[in-house]
Queue: 2 jobs
Job 1
Amino acid sequence: MSADSAIAAPPRAASVGFSDVGRAFSIRSRRKPDATRDVLSGVRLEVGAGEIVAIIGASGCGKSTLLRIAGGLDAPTSGAVSIDGNPVRHFDPRTAVGFQEPRLLPWRSIADNVALGVPRGTPRVGARQNVDRLIELVGLTESAGLRPREVSGGMAQRAALARALCRRPGVLLLDEPFGALDALTRLKMQDLLIDIHTAEPTTILLVTHDVDEALQLADRVVLLARSEPEGPASVSQIVTVPGHRPRDRGSAELAELRARLLDGLGVDRHGTAHGVAAVTTIPHYPY
Amino acid sequence: MTYQTTPDQRVQVVASSVGSSFAEARDVAEAVGAPRSTGSARPVGRRRLTDRRWFVIAGGALIPVLILAAWQIVSTTGLVPLSQLPSPAMVWLAAVDLAQRGLLGLYIAISTQRVLIGFAVGGGLGLLVGAVVGLSRLSDILLAPTLGAIRAVPSLAWIPLLILWFKIGEESKVILISIGAFFPVYTIVAASLRHVDRHLIEAGRAFGLSGVRLFATVQLPAVVPSVISGLRLALAQAWLFLVAAELIASSMGLGFLLLDSGQNGRIDRIILAIILLAILGKLTDSIVGLFERWAIRRWA
Ligand SMILES: Nc1ncnc2c1ncn2[C@@H]1O[C@H](COP(=O)(O)OP(=O)(O)OP(=O)(O)O)[C@@H](O)[C@H]1O
Ligand SMILES: [Mg+2]
């Protein structure tokens, strides 16, 4: 698997700054017309250009919400997010999003869906080459002509990943990009992401449920958690992962970090000793 | 779980915009049923009898043939007097007679022409207004209540007004048919554009699409199948409104033939006109149906 790309000047990685980001959703009901629920509050995080940061946290704690705010798909109710020091714009073109669900256009082939990620103004030939290369890298060359409903959930997810990678953004926002994949394909895709990052060091914010994946891929792992049961979540731990990628999955140092993070997620050591950490996340489709 | 939102959404959209008549209800059922039998989803392997082309055609022709046979038997045995129900042969002779006078072709042609023009005008406007109302919240607020009220006016109520304004010329009929064709298209286009998967629109925006490009890339393809279902309903409505228009104010056409024969007691011609309307309606509907099948395969 090679990640050469001499098609255009590589994009410049951008830094991302979250300053006291909070997000409350209104939960209107007839009795309480202006009730709100705080999902995130006081999230403070500086992500350096070219850094890979993994975000972990319990289901429903606001990981996707944070990612959407970083991409300008949603606006914070308090605080602000900046990219390279400038405020994030509505659907910020400096970012690319790999959604938690594939969100492929059902009437387009896989190849045409991936091509949707190509930024406007890219010369046609270069765009086509880039699309073909990424489809090959995610292992979908055989299925490039199929429609999304004719491929498996994991294949659709890989197509969505390729679509986001096509954009070659300054900031890549990936929401559980490997959630629907089997262990082997997942490892391959992780390697692919590392290869691509090595060739074109872009900033990556990666949401995952898999602590091992976070430790394998990220420079730092951010744990989002609530301080009280029904309260808003914010950054509860930031773990700097030692060593260079690819890391030794069995190292004692990583094992210690894994235990710490699982502890933060509420999994006890007894559970980890019995391999709970290796359980793959359940793919989650809201469809 | 694979990725399929569109068929279910179409069901919801089409069902929520059902108009009034029985013919519509039937066509809605067809339109809703159609996506389930799209080509690429069919399992490979043994083909069932109901998938075979000859069986589908023969099956569809079975009941018409039975009716024809029953009709023949009833009229030859004298079970029903010929003055009440002429035999198939008599209806055939009435057709030949009208054809020799040059009236049959003329009536069919003029009626078809009215339907097609009215369908094109009404359907076209329906697409346009439906798109505007479906895409813009403001125009939805401004236009939808008024259009809803106009839609509630029974078709026959327009006729006296149209006759006074446009006399018994072609305009009055074409306008009435356009009104009939407009509403199914308008209703379905507006509703289905409103219901396009938000997730897909958001994905489109996230990948830099907006305005016309977003419309052409995400919204339009997403609604193509239901738009064509709407056009199909509109065509059925157009034939309905044609007969209403011709029954009341015309000197040519199949509706006129019905009225004229009713006044002269020519039951054979009445039955002929009914059969012709059934055939023409089914024929035009099948053409749009083929188009619909293609569109569903292509876009859904
Ligand atoms: N548009 C919305 N309106 C109201 N509440 C919302 C909305 N979007 C998210 N929420 C709420 O915000 C909380 C966080 O949602 P989010 O999707 O960010 O969770 P998550 O951490 O990504 O969870 P998961 O790991 O299951 O994907 C949830 O409780 C959800 O109910
Ligand atoms: Mg999520």
Job 2
Amino acid sequence: MKDKYEAVIGLEVHAQLKTKTKMFCGCKNEFTNEPNIHVCPVCLGMPGSLPVINKKAVELAVKAALALNCKIHKKSIFARKHYFYPDLPKNYQITQYEEPFATDGYLIIEKKDGTKKKIRIKRIHMEEDAGKNIHEEHFSKVDLNRAGVPLIEIVSEPDISDPEEARLYMQKLRDILVWIGVTDGNLEEGSLRCDANVSIRPKGSKELGTKVEIKNLNSFRFIEKALRYEINRQIEAVKKGEKIIQETRLYDSQKDITKSMRTKEEAEDYRYFPDPDLPPLIIEDEWLEEIKASLGELPDEFKERVIKEYKIKEYDADILSRDKTLAYFFEEAAKSYKGEAQRVSNIILSDLLGILKEEKIELKDVPFPASYIGELLNLVDENIISLRVAKEEVLPEMVKTGKSPKVIVEEKGLKQISDTSEIEKIIKESFKNNPKAVKQYKIGDERKKQKAVQFFIGQVMKATKGKANPKLARDLIIKLLEEEN
Amino acid sequence: MAKFNIEKVAYLSRIAISEEEKKELEPQLEKILEFVESLNELDTSNIDPKFNVVEMFARLREDIPHLSLPREKALENAPETDGKYFIVPKIVKK
Ligand SMILES: [Zn+2]
């Protein structure tokens, strides 16, 4: 940041809740390319229809709020927010305004240098989504499948001080919400949306500058880039003596700039008032306790526990804790392995995920149980196969066929040769064929000796198609070379 | 009391009213506001704000899909449609 100024950033994040039906009617909450098929009198805003709250939506919203350390309010109120737009058939959006169901939470982000920062969450409220407009040249088309889909809006305090923190906050938020099954968390498809409020002020100042709202931040990268651009734009403007206007700006990712959308000169008047169709929502203590109990382990708790229990590197634990499927796949695998769990993490994170990426398979669709990873490494420790064979031959076959490592080793004849006399025979044969290398070992210095040993290991591996037990082969080669002297 | 701004209210409601209607409606609405204003004379400092007239709580619905409207039915009252979408005048703002 340009030395004399600092940025003050707050994020407003909308997450679509993963329910089967909409917030206030039984129409399906499901993406489809067929427009206007998930609609009914309620979500079309027909006169006389009445909204009824979806219990599951409330449950998911409460789950999210608990995971974000919020205070849950027993009583909350739904209000009407009025504005006119074709994707909003009732001409008002049902949302929570004065009395949201959750306030005063926080989440902790971890920066690149390892420092942690607490970002406070001001409030979370429930509301309904609007439909979609498709703009044609001379008219616009409206699809109301999305109208009424349940959303939560998570509003942070302006505790974020730079674009990187904003991205980290958003990623952490996404990881938590996806982990607890509240949302799909897909920014590109819009199941998670982010608007940012950003202002600048002289460093150390307590006063807040005029804030600008940025919309259309539909990827983690764009959040960071758009904020970086906007902060610089504001700093340059202030330096030139210009005044920052309170306005909404749209991020244009093609040009990597923000563009003015509308100024707040005529402040919008939403005329909020409590929706007379919806009595207060009550979250009874008993229900709250039930939801709390169903929450399970959160990503940070998982991370802390696996570091302690399985003694894996913090870096690995961090990656694992960002995806629930991956996290528990690791744990299942580690449980079935007799050695150090770090090796399980290594083979999953660097080998298995690589194969899956290449084969375009998702971890949840892997055709074998996680315990097979443990069994695979057990075979390595029992000297039945080498680590190389495990990674390069058995593991890809497991992904392809779902067969157990034992069966694959058997079927493909991958069992390594650990028979001393057999390996000795091969070594002696290669000594005969390569007298020069034997001589090099005899008269050479330490470095030359090492080179000769490496050479013969290569020969033995070639002769056995990589199946010789590498440690045994090495020991035998050295022993026999010494005997040659 | 500030003068009732009938133009703003008409704009917010997207209702076009003529000068004559304005003259007729403005004093009427002002009277209504004055009447409501008299409620402020009551001391309510010891009473919890009520957001709803009736003290009852929302009933919740299980998350089970119902049959939605057939699309022809949903689009039946649309001023204009192509059989799939509601067609509206080109949206310029926002
Ligand atoms: Zn509906």
